[in-house]
Design brief:
mainly alpha; 11 helices; about 5% strand; DUF7726 domain-containing protein; DUF7726
Length: about 280
């Protein structure tokens, strides 16, 4: 996994924006010790340096050091506790990792480590196989390569990043996604997937083969695990009864707007709206 891909996984440009007063954050109440553990995990994985992390959450270096050095939160460091907690809980809501996958750490002593035992290697292999397994479900239209899609490209990208963050390689994931295509219709290469992940907008990448394969992949896993549809997914089906548009590229398609003072844009469900500029 290259550096650019790691950065897109940790800090994607199209991540859902969550305000500090978002009601979903009210259910979170990490203790100071739990927050410290998350901070150390984040820093030690190489996601950011301590200086960069302090800038990201907007805290004073002295208060930050004070917070990490106490068993509870001293009054001057309560701001660190709050801001760090919000940082990690927002990432959890966004489906973003709170550390770089172990396999991406590069340490000088790595070459001196003992080779994994056969049982350990098998366990890792079984875990990877489970992450990429989609069960035996066949979706309507799958054989013809014409499955109706009820997610936005942004949502599929979020799920892809979450899976890659668990240690799945681009090559292995691309091979698994290729299996979502009808027989004889080619494969999905890692570069196509990488290009799809680089898109930013809600509907950007809607014509990509990676979008189609990604949706089919995660939908089959949802059915495999017998999971109910999310509220977001239910709303998508209501707003897009025949599936989202996978034909017209929003970056190249031109639309006529009745007024020069109005502009077009997509909401979180991929529905286009006209608003005053």
């Amino acid at each position: 996994m290259d550096t650019d891909l790691i950065n897109r996984i940790l800090f994607p440009d199209d991540e859902e924006k969550i305000d500090d007063d978002d009601p979903r954050l009210l259910s979170y109440s990490d203790t100071p010790g739990e927050v410290r553990t998350k901070i150390r995990t984040w820093i030690e994985s190489g996601a950011q340096t301590e200086a960069d992390f302090q800038k990201t959450i907007g805290v004073d270096p002295t208060e930050y050091s004070s917070f990490l050095g106490y068993l509870t939160s001293p009054d001057p460091a309560r701001d660190v506790h709050k801001k760090a907690s919000l940082f990690f809980h927002k990432r959890e809501l966004q489906g973003l990792p709170i550390e770089i996958p172990e396999r991406n750490k590069i340490k000088p002593e790595a070459s001196k480590k003992k080779k994994p035992t056969k049982s350990a290697a098998k366990g890792k292999s079984d875990s990877m196989e489970r992450l990429l397994d989609t069960g035996d479900y066949i979706l309507p239209g799958e054989i013809e390569g014409d499955v109706d899609i009820f997610e936005t490209p942004r949502e599929v990208r979020r799920k892809m990043r979450a899976l890659l963050a668990k240690g799945v390689t681009q090559a292995a994931f691309a091979r698994a996604l290729s299996e979502m295509l009808p027989e004889g219709s080619g494969t999905l290469n890692p570069q196509t997937m990488k290009a799809f992940l680089a898109h930013k907008g809600v509907m950007d990448g809607n014509t990509s083969k990676a979008f189609y394969c990604g949706y089919v992949f995660f939908e089959k896993q949802r059915l495999r695990d017998n999971k109910p549809m999310s509220k977001h997914r239910e709303t998508m089906e209501e707003l897009h009864p025949t599936g989202v548009d996978t034909t017209h590229n929003p970056k190249t398609t031109r639309y006529i707007v009745s007024s020069a003072t109005r502009s077009l844009g997509y909401d979180q469900y991929g529905v286009m709206h006209s608003s005053r500029s």
